[in-house]
């Protein structure tokens, strides 16, 4: 194979074919000094550095530039970047490129922690917008156009808006195009965390990418849904409001000066996989998916829920939590993406036409797992969710300011009008009820008390035994 359509993969192959002697970093010297088992060590011959013919991620001019140009053409961006530290670094770079200390940023409240970290690092001030509750998946969904309009009216000085779509559970935002338009009418750049949507491009049956809907900056974890290695991700820009140079500038600062060539080659390959994905491939995927769903639904007590993104599937076992189901599946050698109170989340393989594995064997394992549950006591699966008390809220202090302040633990009943020092997150659904820096109102207190009484679990600065939360000192 010549790998003509994968410039970086080809460059690495060409380099290796010369049997190069390594007198350069990395120290494993093409794997020679590595103590890893042979099958792992084999990959190290490609774990090289910025050598002649292999280009430089931070100043791409040859193979990496060609690979990124192909990526950009596929996704229809002005420029696309390879990321070697996940969508995490993409979220950081998107915010650094668009906001400064003290700027207001509209942020969907159920954002990934990297967005919160970006706010902390930039010193920008979030205006949190609550997502709608998504009944079908029993998870926090996306934000509505109506609520975005409301937030923008209240805070017309917002400098950037960050949305998350699809969610981890495959919930898309069907109003995204209009949301982007309304943000643009205020000259606000739209940053979309599309970590779970790198595969949307392969077929129209998948939801549309926010990039196609007019978003300025879109980050995608290629490693989550395309066949790329863990951490390997894409960042696309298509904007009249954000400069490509600023994004490149921050990526240079935030990404390693020794990016992994194996990761980057896997990005080149993942792009090629998406680019060559055709109707026959999608037909095979559908057959695989429908076959699996049919088998799963034939198991008594099992519910298979299909979210907007066809690559995701939720599985519920009547009377059992997702955690118990996950454990039973693992006993059969099936590892799912995650479990919550209600269900487990499966991320299906985006197979192509040549996939010929039968899933009857897989279905049997699912069946055995569910059967093993019959001996276990059924748990009352209760919904603990209560919608956040305010649709739009700003913090009293930025995360950066909070770091310089003293904190103390106080009983929840004495916390009214104090400022939360850290976030308090009922889990599930995992959306912060109180974000760090937000003022504690009577309404928040009541919600926390109700959730505690219902036995809800929390993450963050709350002691569930003493019923204390951490607040900023007086
Ligand atoms: C919505 C969302 N955004 C960003 C990230 C971070 O992505 P990565 O693991 O590629 O850094 C995740 C990871 O799970 C995520 O779910």
Question: What would you note in describing this structure?
Answer:
This protein is of the alpha+beta class and 474 residues long. The protein folds into three domains: 7-275, 3-Layer(aba) Sandwich (Aspartate Aminotransferase, domain 2), CATH 3.40.640; 279-375, Aspartate Aminotransferase, domain 1; 392-472, Ornithine Decarboxylase, Chain A, domain 4 (Alpha-Beta Complex). The protein has 15 helices and 19 strands. A hairpin with a 4-residue loop joins strand 4 (133-134) and strand 5 (139-140). The longest helix is centred in the middle third of the chain and has 19 residues, at 279-297. The chain is globular and about 70 Å long. The termini are far apart. The structure holds pyridoxal-5'-phosphate. Residues 86-88, 112, 114, 164, 168, 193, 195, 221, 233 line the site of pyridoxal-5'-phosphate.
Task: Annotate the secondary structure layout.
Blueprint: H1 7-17, H2 38-41, H3 63-75, E1 79-83, H4 86-98, E2 104-108, H5 113-122, E3 125-129, E4 133-134, E5 139-140, H6 145-154, E6 160-164, H7 176-185, E7 190-193, E8 217-220, H8 222-225, E9 233-237, H9 244-254, H10 261-275, H11 279-297, E10 302-305, E11 312-317, H12 322-331, E12 338-339, E13 344-347, H13 360-372, E14 392-394, H14 399-402, E15 407-411, E16 424-427, H15 442-453, E17 457-460, E18 462-463, E19 468-472
Parallel strand pairs: 2-3, 2-6, 6-7, 7-8
Antiparallel strand pairs: 1-9, 3-14, 4-5, 8-9, 10-11, 11-13, 12-13, 15-19, 16-17, 18-19
Helix pairs in contact: 1-3, 1-10, 3-10, 4-5, 4-9, 6-7, 12-13
Bound molecules: pyridoxal-5'-phosphate.
